[in-house]
Amino acid sequence: MDFDLKRLGFTLLGLLIVLNWGMLMSAIMRKVGARVARRYGIPWYQPWIDLVKNYALRSQITHGIMFYLGPVFRISGGVGLFLFMPMIIGSELWMNYSFQGDLVLLMYFQFFGMLGMALGAGEGGHPNSAIGISRGLSQFTVIEVPMTLAIISLAIQYDTLSLVDIVKAQQGGFQNWTVWTNPVATIAGMLALLGALSHSPFNLVKAPNEIPIGPPTEYHGAFLGVLRTNAAILHVVEAALFMNLFFGGATNWFEFILKTFLIYFWSVFVGVVFPRFRIEQSVAWFLKIPLVFGILAIILYM
Q: Fewest Cβ atoms closer than 10 Å to its Cβ: which of 33, 113, 151, 163?
């Protein structure tokens, strides 16, 4: 019991670290985007101010129970990914609750939050909610195809669906990382990551160029605070997932922060270089180049 309580304490501490690192990283990336556009950008502490302000507000609008459960389902997906993913390899206290075959569960959690938001938006009062739901689910579904193919290739290569075993197989030097032993699957996964992190050119679902629509309008106050909390957690744990799959995992927190920053920066770099796709363009793109690399990765390792 003492060990379980100790592990729970370290898990909650890790969640706090991931949350704050996610908010700091989002501020840095927004600063980078602003400097590319020759603007000054937000101060580094702005995400914490926004979070406190959102949680301090209360909503007077009612749309039904599922509308309020949407943000709850969304944050459950991000926290679920964190809970069952190893953070620091070699440390039992920072392995969270990983177990054999946990990759399948992680894939479910990755899609769970999106489905929850779709159900929540379906009860919203906006007449275009159905359009947003179809956009989001269509794009995320095609993102999952090359990502799943890349993971299947790794399962064939390492003969396991345990993320812990995959990371342990990459220890002993950077030459053992999946990026060198299975570069085709790495390319498929990193291209799918661009859509999973929802930066340009694959961020039309959030419609950052349209002020009167999107989650900041439909959800506000504490509900928006929950969504922003999940965004900070989700971006870090998704980067950590790809770090564990392709880049050898992390043996300490410094390595964890450095690798997740570089992986996240990959999507930000692409976002400031390429213009935004329409939904039909992004769906067609994911079913071409990333899908081809995903299929090749399986063929090469069968």
A: 33
